[in-house]
Description:
Blueprint: H1 2-14, H2 19-36, H3 45-57, H4 67-80, H5 105-114, H6 118-129, H7 134-138, E1 145-146, E2 151-154, E3 163-166, H8 169-182, H9 201-214, H10 224-236, H11 241-248, H12 253-257, H13 265-270, H14 273-276
Antiparallel strand pairs: 1-2, 2-3
Amino acid sequence: MHEIVHRMMMELKLRNRSDATIDAYRRFALALGRFHDRPLDELGEAEVRAFLEYLLTEHKLHPRSLVGHISAYKFLYGTILGRPEVTASLAFPKKTKSLPRILSHAEILALIDCAETVRTRAFIMLGYGSGLRMSEVRNLQPRDIDSKRGVIVVRAGKGSKDRIAPLPERTLATLREYWLEERPKGPWLFPGAAPEKPMSKHTIGDRFNRTRFLAGLSAPVRFHSLRHSFATHMLEAGVDILAIQALLGHARLQTSIVYLRTRADHLLAVGNPLDRLATS
C-alpha cells in the first residue's frame, strides 16, 4: 500500500500540486486501505463506495466534505493504477450556494483587540487587511514584505500563482513590532517549533479560534472569514470586481462574483417599503 501511495505523491509533486493537496491525498488513500485492511490495488468500486458511506454515516461527514476523498480516489485509480472504471461512476456532491459569513467592522476590531499575542494579531491583520489565505500567511518569508511599495508578494499561492497583495500601514507596524519582539529564525516569517518549518495550520487555527472565543464570535466564523470580509468590504468601498479578483488571486472571475451577493450597501441604499409607510 505504501509503495502505491508513494507513487501517487511523487506524481502529484511532478504536477506541482500544493503540499496541502499531496498530504490530503496521502491521508485519504491510507485511510481507505486501513478501512478494508487490504492493498489499494485489490479494491474496487464497491469497496470505495463502502468507505465513503462509512464516512457519511459513522463519522457524520457532510457530503461536501467527501469532495477531497473522491478527488483523491479518482486520481489514485484513474492516473496511478490505470483503473478509471473504479471511480468513474462516483459523482461529486452538489455544491450548496450558501453565502460566506461576513464579519462587520466592529467584529474585525474585536478580533484584533482580543489577540493575546502580537503574532496572533499579525495573523488576523494579514487575513483581513491583505486578504491572505491561512496557507499564504504561514508560508510568508521576510523577503515577501515589500515595505517600500506597501505590498506583500504572495509566492506560489493557490494554483501555484504569484500575486501582489496590499500591505496596510497598520499591518506593517504590527509586523515590525512582531519582528522586534520575536526575532524569528530560519527562512519563515512565522516559524514553527522547528525553525526550518513554517508554523502549522493547526496552530494558527487554534490561535484564531481562541481569539474568536474571546471576541464573542461563534461558528461558522473561521480564519477564511477574514478573507471573505476583506473582499466584501473592498467591494462596498467601491473597488472594481476585476481588481478584487486580482487581489484575491482567483483564476476565474466567477469565483469572485460571489462577493457581489454578500455586500450590504446596495441593499441598504434601496430602502424598504416598511420604512416608508406613513405612521399614524
